[in-house]
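User: Here's a protein and a ligand (adenosine monophosphate). What would the complex look like?
Assistant: Let me lay out the input and then the predicted complex.
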Amino acid sequence: MSFEQLGLTDELLKAVAEQGYITPTPVQQKAIPLILEGRDVLAGAQTGTGKTASFTLPLLQRLAENSDPHQKPRRVRALILVPTRELAAQVYESVLTYGKHLPLHAETVVGGASISVQTRQLRRGCDIVVATPGRLLDHLQQRNINLSNVEILVLDEADRMLDMGFMPDVRQIMSLIPKQRQSLLFSATVPDAIKTLAASVLNNPAAVEVAKQNATADNVSERVYGIHREYKRELLSYLIGSNNWQQVLVFVRTKHGADRLEKQLIEDGIRTTALHGDKTQGARNKALEYFKSGKVTALVATDIAARGLDIDELPHVVNFDMPQVPEDYIHRIGRTGRAGSNGQALSLVCPEEAWLLAEIEKLLKRQIPRAADTGYEPVSLKVIDAPRKKAPDHIAGKKDYRHTKKNTTRGAKPAQGEKRKPHGEQRKVKK
Ligand code: AMP
């Protein structure tokens, strides 16, 4: 099947061809004709399936079909609600890309950006708004936006909106949109709560289901940042802040390291919580709940504490300390890019950890790409056998001390034939 067969207009076909798309994906094949017909749609489709184009293309076409070029200012005729700023940016980008040959104007309305700039933009008028619920409500309360002309409503990643506690906001927003409208609900999973929501939002919907896509390493972009240990925390804060990350899982080696980094990130103004084995179950549940709901941005965890964490589709994972066991690298980055979504896994590697990186790359049978510029003086990650420090006498002399002199050096490679100590354990020797 080709895009032409889906009934899209020349302007959209041109934009699609410019993107290099040749055949529509399954969700596009199913959803586009239904949406063009004016049907409400409930689609079970994840990121990576081409879902954004599957609602953006027909939405643009329907708006363009009866657009009045003389209408000034432009009225909001389509509203796309998404759970996160990141997704808003992606969807907005798609609207611009696919709509570039059409005389339609779009704006984004998301938290974290200047409200006065958004107000000015909204007051100038636009046809399409891509928004996160909280900020849109702020604008509605301030009467900066009028939704009484909305013809098409899209709820994208509805299950995530539900998980993040946005449903009351979404319902309030919906009460301000005309009942007579086309509604499209996209969700990676369709649990009962989404079915209930669909029943109240959609009118005689057509269901579109596409097969799950397996997450592959392809949708996780990995980078190694060579950096001296003392600058790691500064770089991490910079990466979180400058990229406006909303959710990042940071792996550290020890419980003590987790607590310390938590404190430091908080000092840097980043909402952070730590998760490790010394915390009570209640405290751990709370940390996880805060992280999942977006109350905290960074979750600092040890490998053991992170095991079994049920967090899907994490956008960012950072190895603040490199894992002591190469397989743990795979477990750690497996937390991102799940369910076909795009993820980023960054490793901050200091020279003392170069050998750990080398072991990981040996296991992966490939090199992890290096960040071209860390903003700090370049650091060599060539493996040189780390010097073995002598453990302090009072410790080395202790009979029950489990570690030999050789592996008391932080990050030092174990001597040949010597077993590496289990990961996740706190060392008892201070450097
Ligand atoms: P999405 O599921 O909307 O996040 O889309 C995933 C990726 O697939 C995006 O990078 C799109 O640009 C790309 N894409 C969407 N539709 C097609 C298509 N028909 N052919 C090739 N790539 C596509």
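Summary: The mean pLDDT is 84.
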